[in-house]
Amino acid sequence: MSSSNIFSEENIKTENKNAIYSGLKFRSIGPALMSGRISDIVIHPENENLWYVTAGSGGVWKTENSGTTWKSIFDGQKSYSIGCISLDPQNPNIVWVGSGENVGGRHVAYGDGIYKSEDAGESWKNMGLQKSEHISKIVIHPKNSNIIWVASQGPLWSKGGERGIYKSTDGGKSWTQKLGDNEWIGATDLVIDPKDPNLLYAATWQRHRTVAGYLGGGPGTAIYKSKDGGENWIKLKNGLPKSNMGKIGLVLSPQNSDIIYAAIELDRRTGGVYKSENQGAKWKKMSNAVAGGTGPHYYQELYASPHNFNEIYLADNYMQVSYDGGKTFTRMNESEKHVDNHAVAFKMSDKNYILVGCDGGLYESFDKTKNWKFIDNLPITQFYKIAVDDSKPFYNIYGGTQDNNTQGAPSRTDNIHGIRNSDWFIVLGGDGHQPATEPGNPDIIYAQWQRGNLNRHDRKTGENTYIKPQPDFGEKTERYNWDAPILVSPHNPKRLYFASQRVWKSNDRGDSWNTISEDLTNNITRLSTPFYGSQQKWNNAWDVRAMSNYSTITSISESPIQEGLIYVGTDDGVIQVTENGGESWKKINFNKMKNLPQTAFVNDIKADLYDKNTVYAVFDNHKFGDYTPYIYMSKNKGVTWVNLASNLPENTLLWRIVQDHINSDLFFLGTEFGVYFTNNCGEEWLKLEGGMPNISVRDIAIQKRENDLVLATFGRGIYILDDYTALRNFNNVGTNSKLFTPRDAFRYKQKRVLGSRIKASQGDNYFVAENPPFGVEFTYYLNEKIQSQKEIREKKEQKDGEKNKIVKIPAWEVLELEKKEINPEIWIFIYSKKDIIKKIKAKNVKGFNRISWNLLTESKSIISPENLNKNNSGHMVFPGKYSAQLFKQTSGEFISISEKVSFNVKQLTEGSIKGNSFAMISEFQDEFYHLKENANNLADDIEDLKTKIKLMLKAYERGNALDKKLHNSLLVKRNEILDLQTKLEGSQVRKEIGEENEYPSLWTYLWSASSGTNTTYGPTKSHKKSLDIASKIFLNIELSYKKIEKSISPLEDQLNKINAPKINFSD
Question: Quick one: which of 377, 399, 733, 766 has the fewest CB in 10 Å?
Answer without folding.
Answer: 733
